[in-house]
Amino acid sequence: MSGLLRAEFLKMRKRWMPYVLFLLMLAGAAVIIWLIGYGTWHDDDDPEWAASGFRTFAYPYSVPALLDSGQFWGAAFFVGILATSTLATEHNWGTIRPALVGGVSRARYLLAKLLMLMLVSTVALLLALGFGVLLSLWATSVADTTVTYPGSFTAGDFVLMVSRAALCILPYGLLAFALTVISRSTALGIAGTMGYMTLEAIIVAALGTGGDILQGSRILFLGHSVGALIAENRFGDLGYESTSFRDLEAPDQPGIWTATAVIVAESALLLAASFFVFIRRDVTVSHG
Amino acid sequence: MLKTPDIEHQPAAPEHSDVVLRTVGLTRRYGKITAVDALDLEVRRGQVFGFLGPNGSGKTTTIGMVLGLLRPTNGHVELFGVDTRRDLTGPLKRVGSVLEGASAYPHLSGTENLRIWSMIAGGVPGGRIEEMLSLVGLSERAGSKARTYSLGMRQRLAIAAALLTDPDLVVMDEPTNGLDPAGMREIRQLIRDLGAMGKTIFVSSHLLGEVEQMCDQVAILKSGRLLMQGEVSSLVGQGTALEMQVTDVERAVTVLSGLDFVKTVRRDGVRLIVETAGERAADVSRALAENTIYLSELRTRQDSLEDVFLEMTEDA
Fold it and tell me: By percentage, how much of chain B surpasses pLDDT 70?
């Protein structure tokens, strides 16, 4: 497995796309802290907006704000694009065939790809978060205002917040992974993942206006459970300027453990579907 | 990897046998189309085995099944005596393959591409990558990105990758496709050299001259069915004919058709092709002269692989 992982790392290290995506993540963190957070707080006359802007850039409020946006855009862009591109290009370049006929089992091959994607995504997203936190500390010092927050904020809280966000990125990454394994297409993988994220936001919102059964059926959608976990990251019930277009105030979100169970179960399903299809399907060759 | 239920209890060749590759009733259907139909092949250690067939005859599909990329509808493959339904990855470690449409990572150099394959294979001895690049004549461009390679160079890189782990069996699907004449000659020579080194080579092609020059065994496939399998030397020598020009073609056909040692007489423009043993040339000449028909040219002609192939594929 180590040889496979080293091969995956060499392939990914030599591509320009992960670096571009990473730079976009850093730019996104800067926009959240300075433009959406500090800018709103500094320039908006509406005290409610100004307070919301303050809770976006001021440390430690900035941590949930960054994780929220990072989960939404990070999952959609960084993890989704990286997963689909890494998998589909092997089909496009025809390099998947020599790998599989070299005596590597299909399960190991796919597992190596998945592990490398998880590793690279984790490192990149943590670095982007770290960059965002540094910007937040800088902006907080520039603001020269006392920051007070309910309760405490320990290293353990920070780890828990990051873990919740990671759990929320996982199913969308696996959705991109599964869609690409099944479709063998970068375009379908990315469009499918982003299309799902957009559609589920609309559908969950629409179902929320219906009766008990319709409201209950929202549990089938990842976004509903993800929203519950991300909302748990907030300090009390204090909101921030979110770029992820999700309602964190919904009173009828599932409990934290129910949401976790749904996310884990749906992730497992996506993973199983990916491996089942990849192991069983023909790897197409032209018919000579 | 690919598991097929209901494995029939047919004994596989023992691992120490010199049968390197065997297909047993290998069949692949795509809906109503049968791409490969109950194919029984046997490739022995040290053979350079030519797998011939017109385009669309099922060669690539067969290779896909041999290498585990495609799931057979029926039948099975044995590699080194191991039924690949039970274990595919083990025997495949002893196989190198060059698949149609040479593939490489375009953003990596030739050396890096081979390094990738080496890592996937679990490592190769130091210097092996440079040795293989030199063998296929890519040393000078080893540091260039594969996207800058010509098709011929990518093909040679694929061959280097196939030989990286020093495999016992090398499977090549149309290895000279897309190459210029000089490149084709280089690859043919390389295949002959590998054969001389004792490697078993299974090479598919629709270029008959190429197979005749490289291979010592051949199988001919048409519409997914095996037409024949045998030694190239015996096939090429199989049909001998006399080719001649005579003063009266019409009467010559009548006279020659009446001779009991002549199998067939056919016209090829102004010439006659008389299928008979070469040593019967004097008898043919005498029979024609006795009927006041005179020869202006007479020579023996041995069937080329192309003749055999065309005869078989047209008849089938």
Answer: 88
Please compute the mean of the pLDDT values over residues A167-190 and round it to a whole number: 89
Closest CA to B201 of B21, B65, B16: B21
Q: What is the Cα–Cα distance from A18 to A117, expressed in whole angstroms?
A: 11
pLDDT greater than 60 at residue B1: no
CB contact under 8 A, A282 and B69: yes
Q: Does A14 touch chain B (CB under 8 A)?
A: yes
Distance from CA of A53 to the nearest CA of B (A): 43
Q: What span, in angstroms and rounded, lies between the C-alpha atoms of A233 and A164?
A: 8
Min mean pLDDT across A142-146, A187-191, B70-74, B177-181 is at: B177-181
**Taking residues A269-279, what's their average pLDDT?**
94
Q: Which residue has the higher pLDDT, A248 or A23?
A: A23
SS3 B275: strand
The most distant pair of C-alpha atoms in chain A lies apart, rounded to whole Å, by 74
What 8-state DSSP symbol labels residue B2? -
Reply yes or no on whether the pLDDT at A286 is more than 60: no
Q: What is the pLDDT of residues B145-160, one digit of tens each?
A: 989 988 888 888 988 8
Predicted confidence (pLDDT) per residue in B80-100, tens digit: 988 988 888 889 988 998 887
Q: Does B289 touch chain A (CB under 8 A)?
A: no
Distance (Å, whole) CA A139 – CA A35: 11
Contacts of A103 in chain B (CB under 8 A): 89-95, 121
B58 in the Ramachandran plot: left (φ > 0), alpha (ψ -120 to 50) or beta?
Answer: left
At residue B101, φ and ψ (nearest 5 deg) are 75, 70
pLDDT digits (tens, 9 = 90+) for B47-59: 889 888 888 888 8
Could you tell me if A130 and B141 are in contact, meaning their C-beta atoms sit under 8 angstroms apart? Answer: no
pTM, 2 dp: 0.80
> How far is Cα A255 from Cα B221, in angstroms, rounded to an integer?
65
DSSP-derived letter for residue A74 is I
**Residue B47: C-alpha distances to residues A218, B43, B173 (Å):** 64, 7, 16
Mean pLDDT (chain A) is 86
Q: Which residues lie below 8 Å from residue B304, measured CB to CB, with a gap of 6+?
A: B208, B209, B212, B236
Instruction: Pick the closest to residue A288 from B221, B36, B56, B37 (CA basis).
Output: B56
In b/e form, how buried is each residue of A152-185, taking b as 16+ CB within 10 angstroms? eeeeeeeeebbebbbbbbbbbbbbbbbbbbbbbb
* Distance from the A114 Cα atom to the nearest Cα atom in chain B, whole angstroms: 15
Averaged over B207-219, what is the pLDDT? Answer: 80
CA distances from B312 to A205, B36, B227, B306 (A): 69, 17, 7, 10
